[in-house]
Amino acid sequence: MATSRRILGLVAHRVTTRAVSVGNDVTLEADLSLPDRATGVVMFAHGSGSSRHSPRNRQVARALQDRGLATVLLDLLTEDEERVDSRDGSYRFDIPLLAHRLSGAARWVSRQPVLGTLPLGLFGASTGAAAALIAAAGSPAVRAVVSRGGRVDLAGEALGAVRCPVLLLVGAHDEVVLRLNERALAALPRADLVVVPGATHLFEEPGTLEQVADHAATWFVSHLVAPAE
For the domain that residue 60 is a member of, what is the CATH number? Predict the structure, then answer.
């Protein structure tokens, strides 16, 4: 059965919503897309106040799917936690909790019949980038990380323990976050920094998010190479 269809010349990959058990009796929702003959899987960690429905992450995910990568867009909070967080912001900067959830989701991926055979990468936006880096520091299974406008400073001492290749993508006009990423670059053992011209924090300027998607896809394709069968 075909897993995708074409709309206006673009490939629209089939998406299924899955319940993801991350431990401690917590179940999160995730949107999974698995292209035919996928060569890797990338899990997305959204930023503060966002969710798996982030339009920016979804656009990047489509670019990865077009390059043969499976994607998992994950809610890092439960519905009850999201309601509380929308009122008082009590969860969005709880980076250890978010990293724990992401690590639990990575273990869930490893148990899935097809996904579990694929090399794993993490894509983090804003605070989600810090969670992704902490999760990568604690798991040799993570083969690559991409950060979009990441608050990588919130990963703290875990930066020095990240052994996989890391790509930091920052807008040229996102000055505070750019400085934070420049400092993190020195702490990360294997990292590159790409500054996207004309972009602010959310990459809302024409063409800038497309550059993010292209850089991310190239990075993951380069570093998530499935073993030959």
Answer: 3.40.50.1820
